[in-house]
Amino acid sequence: MKKANDDSISEYKGIYQAAVINLQDSSLTKNSISIQDDFYFSSFHPINDYSLQTIYYELPRLTNINSDEWISPDIFKALMFEHNDYHPLQLYNIDSFLSETKTSIYLTKSLADDTESLANSVETYLEGLHDIQKKMDPSKSTIPLYSDIFESMKESMYQQDLQSHKEGLIVVASFINRPPNLGGIARTCEIFGVKALVIANLDYIKDKEFQCLSVSAERWINILQVKPHELQKYLFEKKNAGWSLIGAEQTANSINLLQTKFEKKTILVLGNEKDGIPANFIPLFDTCVEIPQVGVIRSLNVHVTAAICIWQYASQHTLRQFSQV
Ligand SMILES: C[S@@+](CC[C@H](N)C(=O)[O-])C[C@H]1O[C@@H](n2cnc3c(N)ncnc32)[C@H](O)[C@@H]1O
C-alpha cells in the first residue's frame, strides 16, 4: 500500500488510515495471506491457463465442486475438439502448475477451526451450495472408457431384469400416443426404478419430443413394445403369472389412490390422452384407481397421473428403505 503522504492518495487520507487500521486486525491479515496462497493468485495464469482443462476440470476441482462434475479434457479430445487460429482457447494447459495445485486450504479445513473466520464463511457457503443441487450423470463419465462400461452394465441389467420379473412395477402406456407424454413417463419410470415401460411402438423413442422430455431415460430402463391390439393377451398372461392389474382411470367403481395398497407385482395401465382406457379393458383389471381431484378440470394429464401413481407405488415399496432412518 502507498504511503499516506503520497499526493495521489492524500485526498483519500481518511479511507487510507481506515484501511491500515483494518489490516492490522489479526484475522484480516491472516485472511489476506491465505487468499494470496489461493491458486487464483499463486499459480493460475489467465493466458497460459486459458483452456478447456482449466474451465471444466481444474476450476471445479480447485473450488471444491463435487468430482462428479469435473470433465476431463480427454472427453473434448474424444469429441474431436479442434484448435482455432482465430481463438486462443487450448485443450490442455501448456504447463502443469495449475494441475499440481491443491484445493485452497480455506475450502478444505474443518469447520471446527474458527467459526468466525472468513475461511469458514466461505466453506459454509460452498457446503450450502452442495445442498442446493447435486448432479450426477454416470453416462458422462470423466474417463471416456467408462461410457463403454456403462453400456455393458446396462445390457446385463436389461438381461437380468427380463429374466427375473419376480416383482416390481410395470407401467403400460400402449394407449398413449403423444411423444412428450411418453418421454416424461419414461423419465419418471427411470427415476423411481420402474421394472419396465410398455409402449405401443418403439419408434416413439427416436422422436425428438420424446427425447426432450426423457433426457436419456430410455437408455436406462426396459422399454417393451406391445401394440394396443396385443395388449389383452399380454395382460392375461401377466395376470396368470400372478401380477395385479391396475387401471388408472376415473370410473364409477374406482378406488381412491390414497387408499390403495399396491401389490409388489403390479401392472399399471394408463389411458389414452383423449379417450382414456377402452371400456372393454376395464373388466380385466383387479381394480381401477382414481387420483382424487378438487378443481373443476375433469382430468389430469396422463404423464402427471403416471407420476403420481408411480410415486405412490414407490413410497410403498421401492423407496421404503429410504424412509427408515
Ligand atoms: C386426460 S385423461 C383421458 C380423458 C378422460 N377420460 C376424460 O374424459 O377427460 C388421460 C388418462 O389420464 C389418466 N387420468 C387422468 N386423470 C386421472 C385421475 N384423476 N385419476 C386416475 N387417472 C387419471 C387416466 O389414465 C386417463 O385415461
UniProtKB/TrEMBL annotation:
Belongs to the class IV-like SAM-binding methyltransferase superfamily. RNA methyltransferase TrmH family. Keywords: Acetylation, Methyltransferase, RNA-binding, S-adenosyl-L-methionine, Transferase. Its EC number is 2.1.1.34. It comes from the Eukaryota. It catalyses: guanosine(18) in tRNA + S-adenosyl-L-methionine = 2'-O-methylguanosine(18) in tRNA + S-adenosyl-L-homocysteine + H(+). Gene3D superfamilies: 3.40.1280.10. SUPFAM superfamilies: alpha/beta knot. S-adenosyl-L-methionine-dependent 2'-O-ribose methyltransferase that catalyzes the formation of 2'-O-methylguanosine at position 18 (Gm18) in a subset of tRNA. Selectively mediates Gm18 methylation of tRNAGln-TTG/CTG and tRNASer-TGA/GCT. Gm18 modification can enhance the stability of modified tRNAs. This is tRNA (guanosine(18)-2'-O)-methyltransferase TARBP1. GO terms for biological process: tRNA methylation.
